[in-house]
Write a structure and sequence with these properties.
Length: 202
């Protein structure tokens, strides 16, 4: 005896309106992918020229292989007029330790211009925290303390681990009443304690 689920699937397979909806959905998906391929074309070509063999910036996001040659190219493309999906891929690809000191200033500038409610803002905050150096922490602190940046501030406390314990801890303690950044403020304080302990061990 056929199950109810198989009867339902057969009904959908014979439903012209449902099949037309599926065709429209697939057409839109293919058009979107084609749009992204075109949008990434110059970026991918530059990456290839630098010896970085990818079909999309998202290949960098999903690899365990380091790609230092790609970092300056990705930074340059942050200021270009790319589709938001491409920009998200670039930011994710820049969220690596070896982009420290190379990507941070460009990430900060884009962070300032980005809508606080957007997913991109949050991604930028994480990338800034990952790539920040001692030289950039003063600017990061200003962003961290400015609540207009909303959820984008979530990971910024982690950038303060480049400061001394005495410099960073008072700032981080002020963040413990802020629900957006509290978790990572606590984590940063813990990391500073570990770093300080390691230094004393030497």
């Amino acid at each position: 005896m056929p199950s109810k689920s198989s009867d339902f699937l057969e009904e959908l397979a014979n439903d012209p309106q449902y099949q037309e909806m599926l065709r429209e959905k697939e057409t839109k998906r293919a058009a979107f992918e084609a749009e992204l391929d075109q949008d990434e074309k110059s970026l991918v070509r530059e990456l290839w020229d630098a010896g970085v063999d990818v079909q999309s910036v998202w290949d960098l996001v999903n690899t365990n292989t380091e790609y230092p040659n790609a970092i300056p190219i990705l930074v340059a493309h942050l200021s270009k007029d790319h589709h938001i999906r491409t920009v998200e891929g670039i930011v994710r690809a820049l969220t690596v330790p070896y982009a420290q000191g190379i990507a941070t200033s460009s990430l900060i500038e884009l962070f300032k211009r980005t809508d606080p409610e957007s997913e991109l803002k949050w991604l930028l905050g994480a990338a800034i925290a990952e790539t920040a150096t001692t030289e950039s922490t003063a600017e990061v602190i200003r962003l961290l303390e400015d609540k207009k940046h909303g959820r984008g501030r979530e990971y910024l406390p982690l950038a303060l681990v480049h400061l001394s314990n005495n410099e960073a801890t008072p700032i981080l303690k002020r963040m413990l009443n802020d629900p957006i950044v509290k978790k990572n403020a606590v984590k940063a304080i813990s990391l500073l304690g570990e770093i300080g302990g390691a230094k004393r061990g030497h």
